[in-house]
Amino acid sequence: MSRPVRVRIAPSPTGEPHVGTLYTALINEAFARRHGGKFILRIEDTDQSRSTPDSEAKIMEAFAWMGLEWDEGPDKGGPHAPYRQSERKRIYAGYADKLLADGNAFRCFCSAERLEEVRNAQRRANIPPQYDGHCLTLDPAEAEARVAAGEPHVLRMKVPREGACDFTDGVYGPVSMPWASVDMQVLVKSDGMPTYHLANVVDDTEMAISHVIRGEEWMASTPKHILLYRQLGLTPPAFIHLPLMRALDRSKLSKRRNPTSTSWFQAQGYLPEAMVNFLGLLFVRPAEGEEELMTKAEFIDRFDIGSVSKAGAVFDLAKLDWLNGRWLRERLAPEAFLPRVIDWANPDDKFVRALELARTRVDKLADLAPLMAFLFSAQVTVTRDDFPMEKLSADQVAQVLAATFALVEKLPEWSETALFDAVKAMSVELGLKARDTTPVLFVAITGSRRSLPLFGSMALLGRSVCRERLRAAVRLFEAVAEDADDDPDSAPGN
């Protein structure tokens, strides 16, 4: 390789770390170590409305839990600091100015309403939504006058309408995409912050990234990035797009249908060594009959980017369970077992805080075990009949569960008070009373009608575990509805 190998993982701190991010990070680190290069952690927080310090902290905690080791990053510094995009705004401005001065970008004054009208018209005509070039031919003098007058605007990239962008991908080989299919992407938002596309190209240049190893979903954006490199007179890195991780049914691994957040796997008691082993087996496949228990160092020693299959990795939870069991029984030293159990049961004093919740609800210490068991169970087992339906219909119960699932996804602050306030507001929006909706959630979260205080329990369990339990409850009512739809006796006219 002619350039020193430098790769990066660049997550956005907008939620809980996804297992797909761990997979991509592991491959990036393996590639760097295999080629004697550097592995960089960069935080892509240009979306200031959704980025949070808490999410950034969780990303670093998840990577550290997995045993990933980056050479440069926000916490370690390095020769190309800062490593948060929100702290690099002045750097991007110079590149944006060059694109504008060279005629490779233009100012766009279109309102959100106009853009939505254009997109709707394109959808009705079965045309892929794209910017229609309304401001592309705007006289530069007029554009500058409108800017001077304080009119809100964005900066867009100019894209050829003829020909194609041809490049070679490290997994997919030769790729060709017509320029006509590439949108005139916004590069700088009205608040002066760059979008992902400009910041990505600038940062990969400034940080001397040699290989961009990222998910397949970014393949469609690669022509935009290659064009920006050309317009700026820069040499692009090599591109390697990893096929999407998929569920057993080959559908996209989605947090709405599958457990995907790192915190969920931690809460279930999976060992980080087993998680690394499992993810590593998705791109390093031992020969038939060869041992499958492997450490990160062993994976790195055998890693070859050419072994990544275009078919995509399948996330088989049963295989992870099997590997985790073997690690617990065969690889974890006996003296290490108790400390691991304590770390799992009492992260952030979870067990101690649970005892505080339980103290006022028990008559003897033996009552603690059944009362607190739901906090340490992988799932709770409930049926439709377990849910209280004295005051709510089955449809209303299903509505409450679905609304709470959506709420859990988006709630900015995860705390007992925030959960209480959010569920109360949600109940009002549904035209219901909180005293009727909370018993429904009580069963979904704790598996019982009598347990510890609901919102304190949810705060202890964490977002990812609550999400999975609510998902299971929502599916329970969906399954009942589907069974009713399939019943010929329930069909109209019978």
- What best-fitting shape do the alpha-carbon axes yield? globular
Write down the overall mean pLDDT.
Answer: 92
CA gyration radius, whole angstroms:
26 Å
Number of helices: 19
Please bin the fraction of helical residues: 40-55%
The SSE order reads EHEHHEHHEEEEHEHEHHHHHHHHHHHH
Task: Jot down its keywords.
494 residues, mainly alpha, Rossmann fold, Glutamyl-tRNA Synthetase, domain 3, Arc Repressor Mutant, subunit A, 3 domains, 3-stranded antiparallel sheet, two-stranded parallel sheet, 19 helices
Q: Helices and strands in order, then pairings?
A:
Layout: E1 6-9, H1 19-34, E2 38-41, H2 53-65, H3 89-101, E3 105-108, H4 112-124, H5 140-148, E4 154-157, E5 164-169, E6 173-178, E7 186-188, H6 196-206, E8 211-215, H7 222-231, E9 238-242, H8 262-267, H9 272-281, H10 296-302, H11 317-331, H12 334-345, H13 350-358, H14 368-372, H15 394-410, H16 416-429, H17 434-446, H18 454-461, H19 463-486
Parallel strand pairs: 1-2, 8-9
Antiparallel strand pairs: 3-4, 4-7, 5-6
Helix pairs in contact: 1-10, 6-7, 9-11, 13-18, 15-16, 15-17, 15-19, 16-18
Question: Describe it for me?
Answer:
The chain has 494 residues and is mainly α. It folds into three domains: 1-80 and 237-345, Rossmann fold; 88-236, Alpha-Beta Complex (Glutamyl-tRNA Synthetase, domain 3); 348-483, Arc Repressor Mutant, subunit A, CATH 1.10.10. It has helices at 19-34, 53-65, 89-101, 112-124, 140-148, 196-206, 222-231, 262-267, 272-281, 296-302, 317-331, 334-345, 350-358, 368-372, 394-410, 416-429, 434-446, 454-461, 463-486, and strands at 6-9, 38-41, 105-108, 154-157, 164-169, 173-178, 186-188, 211-215, 238-242. The strands form four sheets. A three-stranded antiparallel sheet has the order 3-4-7. A two-stranded parallel sheet has the order 1-2. The protein has a two-stranded antiparallel sheet with strand order 5-6. Helix 15 packs across helix 16 (416-429). The chain is globular, with a radius of gyration of 26 Å. It starts with 5 loop residues before the first strand and ends in an 8-residue tail after the last helix.
